[in-house]
Amino acid sequence: MNTAIFCxxxxxxxxxxxxxxxxxxxxxxxxxxxxxxxxxxxxxxxKRYILPAVLFxxxxxxxVLSAKxxxxxxxxxxxxxxxxxxxxxxxxxxxKKPLVYTARVKRMMTTFWILAALITGAGILISGGKLDxxxxxxxxxxxxxxxxxxxxxxxxxxxxxxKAVQNWYINDAKRILSEMPSLHKVGITGSYGKTSMKFYxxxxxxSQYDTLKTPESFNTPMGVTIxxxxxxxxxxxxxxxxxxxxxxxxxxELCEIAHPHDGIITSxxxxxxxxxxxxxxxxxxxxELADSVQAAGxxxxxxxxxxxxxxxxxxxxxxxLYGTTxxxxxxxxxxSVSDKGTEFTLTAPDGESxxxxxxxxxxxxVQNVVGAIAYAHGTGIPLEKLVLPVKRIAAVPHRxxxxxxxxxxxxxxxxxxxxxxxxxxxxxxxGLFDACxxxxxxxxxxxxxxxxxxxxxxxxxxxxxxxxxxxxxKNQTVPIYNGIKSAGYDMxxxxxxxxxxxxxxxxxxxxxxxxxxxxxxxxLPDNY
Length: 528
Hints:
49% of the residues lie in helices and 15% in strands. It has 528 residues and is an alpha/beta fold.
């Protein structure tokens, strides 16, 4: 009987450990395998660990229970909890970005199960192999309750291995670049706008040169390394390298891999403040690209409309400013915006000017396009030869991408945006339409101590534009809700949903005489 009970309990516990660990590995992967970020995530989501912690303590009652009936009752309670864990973390649940079983994840899983085996083995030794010993149940249960700790611990244990693996791949990428001395490399960084700039510049340079860009959001050391090793070809003439960072010195790390000849800094603002600590640190980190480029004798292009960038620009001799404000070397003026697109006249440093038309929505898009024109013109492409490529530029997926799928709703997909400047620009674009204007958003994250304040302001700004507002996440969106309310908005037109699907279902039920224009502003990953 004892053997049967133990085997049933062990099977249930194993399944619970497996599914619970997969969930923790998923969150660790979404947090970039960074232990500090994952620790912060665990602290923010501490409620999900309360019950396991209580049961971890309660199970030691088994040690003092002598009556077999009482012990079996406790085992049943623990087994029921294990079943709850299995149901809660069962496979098949849809995620926005599911767990990817990379080689790194597989190595961590191996280490995790080794740690689990060591804990279980200790129970076997202490109990003398007796299946009716409380220690057997305690140690197996401990693996489950300690899974949130064992998963990041396996990541820490594997750190030397992962460092060695990464260094091998990075050195191989450096070797490939060293064998292509004629390849011209341009780095792009910024708090926001860098992905859009990369796509725009690729369109313009690609009209004259064989150009490769880092795909999607491959802006980390391994993302850049993968691109170089997988996609770079001997025929490529330009390599556009997007560079992202969440901490000081991370842009410098990317520069040491790619060694860019030139650089573009699109923006500096309050983003990733929980890891950067201050906007000053953000500014210093983004200008690590400028330092690297100038040390190599290259050219640095700076967004002259950004006050923080402009304040630092005088330190860099020969820096080229682009934008819409007075004093920019490449300046756009006579900007005309509508729900059909944008037009502007660009003046180059030599006084030459040219009128450009593009399908992109909003005046803010002009900044990045002007930056792309400035760089392309600097490579020797005449302005008039850039008119058609600019006209061909399409919206970057999930960045103010207009999606008209017919029916009574058109979407402005800005799901990959999560910064104050971008949110403000998106609301301006929404305001261009003569339609029923609807905002769907979970708000902004990773803004540190300013997060509540900036989301409150976002709510106030949304109230001035939108006919209806759907907020996603009851806790996350409280500051936005309060901002909307403070603006005197009709709160009957505000809906708070638990999920994006629920929010969109409610939006579909809105009755209006006009066509609905729905702005999807930001889409938080599964770890939020």
